[in-house]
Automatic annotation (TrEMBL):
<feature type="compositionally biased region" description="Acidic residues">
    <location>
        <begin position="148"/>
        <end position="165"/>
    </location>
</feature>
<protein>
    <recommendedName>
        <fullName>Acidic leucine-rich nuclear phosphoprotein 32 family member</fullName>
    </recommendedName>
</protein>
<dbReference type="InterPro" id="IPR032675">
    <property type="entry name" value="LRR_dom_sf"/>
</dbReference>
<dbReference type="InterPro" id="IPR045081">
    <property type="entry name" value="AN32"/>
</dbReference>
<dbReference type="GO" id="GO:0042981">
    <property type="term" value="P:regulation of apoptotic process"/>
</dbReference>
<dbReference type="InterPro" id="IPR001611">
    <property type="entry name" value="Leu-rich_rpt"/>
</dbReference>
<dbReference type="GO" id="GO:0005737">
    <property type="term" value="C:cytoplasm"/>
</dbReference>
<feature type="region of interest" description="Disordered">
    <location>
        <begin position="148"/>
        <end position="169"/>
    </location>
</feature>
<keyword id="KW-0156">Chromatin regulator</keyword>
<comment type="similarity">
    <text>Belongs to the ANP32 family.</text>
</comment>
<dbReference type="Pfam" id="PF14580">
    <property type="entry name" value="LRR_9"/>
</dbReference>
<dbReference type="GO" id="GO:0042393">
    <property type="term" value="F:histone binding"/>
</dbReference>
<keyword id="KW-0963">Cytoplasm</keyword>
<comment type="function">
    <text>Multifunctional protein that is involved in the regulation of many processes.</text>
</comment>
<keyword id="KW-0143">Chaperone</keyword>
<dbReference type="InterPro" id="IPR003591">
    <property type="entry name" value="Leu-rich_rpt_typical-subtyp"/>
</dbReference>
<dbReference type="GO" id="GO:0005634">
    <property type="term" value="C:nucleus"/>
</dbReference>
Length: 233
């Protein structure tokens, strides 16, 4: 389905000014441009265009209230200056799985003064030496890059608590029930799935590990296999 038809479907006979969230994932854009969106979407706060074939953002309309923008799995390699011009109040931007290679490409995001979270996972830029340090230096307003801050603390919107453990009495099944609430196609989904998998692993060994202090998710893989040292009586 092309993007224009998808927008018409999502409107459901409502006016664009009534729309706060709009998900256009997996629709198709002609010539790699944004289609069907107009400046009538004055109240739009969340926009998701995952895997729609975008290679340019030049036709993105002004969206003054937009705070969260999902653009993962497209073909974007530039034109990010459009975001500062059209979406000045962005706080979250997901550019994972695009063709961003150079640090200089991100300079256009310096004018997004409210940007707090940026995802570039699976972009070529992540292979650069001192990638994380360089991005944080270039964009000092950003607190979380690819889901973690400069001290490797995970973003607080994780489905797990700050210690990476399941709340008392919560089983694996009940945790999995919450997964449909996540936005498909985003990096945060991958992150959160990893969290859930780690939590499930902890639950499975909870009887033998009762009371063991939690560790951050990213450390669990490294520590796996070190928890069998204690012998049972």
């Amino acid at each position: 389905m092309d993007m224009k038809k998808r927008i018409t479907l999502e409107l459901r006979n409502r006016s664009p000014a009534e729309i706060v969230e709009l998900v256009l994932d997996n629709s198709r854009s002609a010539d790699g441009e944004v289609e069907g969106l107009t400046d009538e979407f004055t109240e739009l706060e969340f926009l998701s265009m995952v895997n729609v074939g975008l290679s340019s953002l030049t036709k993105l309309p002004p969206l003054p209230k937009l705070r969260k923008l999902e653009l993962s799995d497209n073909n974007l390699s530039g034109s990010l200056e459009t975001l500062a011009e059209k979406c000045p109040n962005l706080t979250y931007l997901n550019l994972s799985g695009n063709k961003i290679k150079e640090l200089s490409t991100l300079e256009a995001l310096q004018n997004l003064k409210s940007l707090q979270s940026l995802d570039l996972f699976n972009c070529e830029i992540t292979s650069l030496e001192d990638y994380r340090e360089s991005v944080f230096e270039l964009l000092p307003q950003v607190t979380y890059l690819d889901g973690f801050d400069q001290e490797d603390n995970e973003a607080p919107d994780s489905e797990a608590d700050d210690e990476g453990e399941a709340p008392t009495g919560v089983g694996a099944a009940s945790l999995c029930v919450r997964l449909p609430e996540l936005r498909l196609g985003s990096v945060s989904v991958s992150r959160r799935l990893n969290v859930v998998q780690a939590v499930i692993g902890r639950i499975s060994s909870a009887d033998d590990q009762a009371g063991a202090p939690g560790q951050k998710r990213k450390r669990e893989v490294e520590d796996e296999g070190e928890e069998d040292d204690d012998e049972e009586d």
